[in-house]
Amino acid sequence: MKEKEMSFWDHLEEFRWTLIRIIGAVLILAIAGFILIPRIFDSIILAPSSSDFITYRFLESASKYIPFLPDFSADSFNVEMLNINMTTQFMTYISTSLAFAVLLTIPYILFELWRFISPALYENETKGVKMAFGFGGVMFVIGCLVGYFMVFPLIFRFLITFELSDAIKNTISLDSYMNNFYTLILIMGVVFELPLVFWLLSSLGLIYRSFFRKYRKQAVVGSMVLAAIITPSGDPFSLIIVTIPLYMLWEISAFVVKKDPPEEIEEEDLPTVFE
Description:
Layout: H1 8-45, H2 54-62, E1 81-82, H3 88-117, H4 123-161, E2 172-173, H5 174-191, H6 194-203, H7 209-214, H8 216-230, H9 236-256
Parallel strand pairs: 1-2
C-alpha cells in the first residue's frame, strides 16, 4: 500500500478521472467503428448468415467422413434478411459501432481499473489480483470467440432451416438476427468467466480441488446437457463440439483453484505409543 493515505474525496476524484479516460477511449474507438463497421458488417457480423461461413465449410468437409452429420452444404442454407423498421439499420449501425468500441477497449478498461485499485493492495495481494484481471479478460475474449464461431452459427442454422410446415417461409428480420447475435456471444463470454469465479471462491477458502475431482462425472453430464440445450440440432458431432469447451472450463477451474489444505490430526486420533 502507499504510505500516503487518500481521503474519500481524493478517491472519488481519482475514480472520476478513471471513468473519464475510459469513456474517452470508448468514444475514440466508436468513431473508428463508425468508419470501419460498414466495411466489415457483411464479412464479420453477417458472416454466419452465409453458407460460406468457415464453421459451415468445416462441418461440410467433416460430413464426408462422419455420416450422421446433418446437411451443411451450401444448397441447404439460404437466408433472406429484411428490415421492417425505418430506423433499424441506422440504430444497428450505432449499436454495432459502440459494441465494437467496448470490445476493443476491454484491455484498456482492465488496465484503468487495475491502476485505480492497485494502490490499495498489499504486495502479496497485487500478484493475485493482476492475474485475475488478465485471466478474466482472456477468458472473456475466448468465450466470445467460441460463441461467434461455434454456438451462434449452430443455433442460427438450425433455427433458420427448421420447418414446421412447407407453407411457411423463413425470413429473418435484422432486429431478430442482431439481438440473438449479441445475446449468445455475450452469454458465452460470461460463461467462460466460471474459472475466475471458482478461483475467487477458492481464494476465500470456500472451495478446493477435491470438489472438482469428486464431481467430475457430474460435470461431464452437465456439460452435455448444457450443450444439448445450446445446440438443438441433435446430431452427436455438434453436441461433442460444444461439450468439449464447456467441460474444459471445469478442468481449467480445477487447475486454478487451491489444493486441499492438509488435514489436521486430532490429538485423540494419535497412536497411544507412550501409554
